[in-house]
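Recap from last week: sequence in, structure out.
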Amino acid sequence: MNYTVVFTGYAEKRLKKLTADVRQKILSATLLLSNNPRPYGYKKLVSRDAYRIRAGDYRIIYEIEDKIVTVTVIDVGHRREIYD
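Predicted C-alpha cells:
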C-alpha cells in the first residue's frame, strides 16, 4: 500500500532555502516514505506525536496518518536546529 506524501507550507518554505544537493537528498528520502513510512532508523519523537528520519546531517519530521494513508512532512532542517 502506497502512502501519499504531502508537505506543509512551513516545510516547503524551509526546503526551498536549502541548497540543491541537500534538497535532492531530502526529497529522495521523503519519496521512500510513500512505500514504507516506518523505515529502518526512524524514531518516534518524545516531544510531539511525530517521527523523524535522517538524511545525512538533516532531519525530516513527519506525521503518519494510517487511516487516510498519508504521510505529512511538517519540518525539515539541519540536525542542530530542527529540535528547537
